[in-house]
Design a protein that fits this description.
Layout (H helix, E strand, L loop, with lengths): L10 H36 L2 H4 L1 H36 L6 H50 L2 H16 L24 H21 L7
């Protein structure tokens, strides 16, 4: 009887074939990882500190404040002039009421400025989040296409647009509440004190000049 004949590959050939396929798979995965690393490196560079470091965000925040704070200061000056005119008409320009009104305006000024600075910080934080989201989108495109060139080009376009963004706070509304000058207003206690002191001063003056003679 003769041995089994056949044209199929031997066990050794099968092993070699499997090893070759495994190596090809490893090479393919290594090439894939190299493309992904290349794309990620490019994206990280585009969205890195050179383009979007702390100085970029500070410049954005300052641009917003450079627009709003002068408006606030202008409103403060207008409110001070209005209050001064009202006090002058009421004959209270040099009274305790005048100091009370000025303190109220200064208090409003501080509150308003703090609010504007807080909004500038919030707007800047939102910009950071937006740019981080654009970077993540570039990663997603890279992993979906495995094409580092396309992903890098898309990232560069997004980053270029992001660098052109400017704060847009718009014109401020009325930041100062009018302070009514009168006996029925918030300054009434100061006015009353002023008038009482004025009356007391006048009475003291009359008494000191009465010329009373004692025996």
């Amino acid at each position: 009887m003769g041995g089994k004949g056949g044209s199929g590959p031997s066990n050794n050939q099968m092993v070699q074939l499997e090893m070759q396929r495994a190596q090809e798979a490893r090479d393919k995965e290594n090439e894939r990882q190299a493309r992904l690393n290349q794309g990620k490196t490019a994206i990280d560079s585009i969205f890195g500190n050179d383009n979007f470091g702390d100085s970029f965000y500070e410049k954005y925040r300052k641009a917003g404040l450079d627009y709003t704070l002068p408006q606030l200061q202008s409103q403060y000056k207008d409110a001070s002039r209005t209050a001064e005119s009202d006090l002058a008409r009421a004959g209270l320009l040099r009274s305790g009421a005048a100091g009370f009104v000025q303190n109220k305006l200064t208090e409003q000024q501080g509150v308003n400025e703090a609010a504007l600075r807080a909004k500038a910080d919030t707007d800047t934080a939102e910009l950071r989040k937006s740019i981080a989201a654009q970077q993540q989108q570039a990663y997603n495109q890279l992993y979906a296409t495995e094409d580092p060139t396309v992903a890098a080009n898309t990232a560069a376009t997004s980053a270029g647009n992001a660098q052109l963004q400017q704060p847009n706070p718009g014109a401020l509304g009325d930041m100062f509440k009018p302070i009514a000058i009168g006996l029925g207003s918030a300054v009434a206690p100061a006015i009353g004190e002023y008038q009482a002191n004025k009356a007391l001063t006048a009475r003291t003056g009359r008494e000191s000049g009465s010329g009373q003679v004692t025996s």
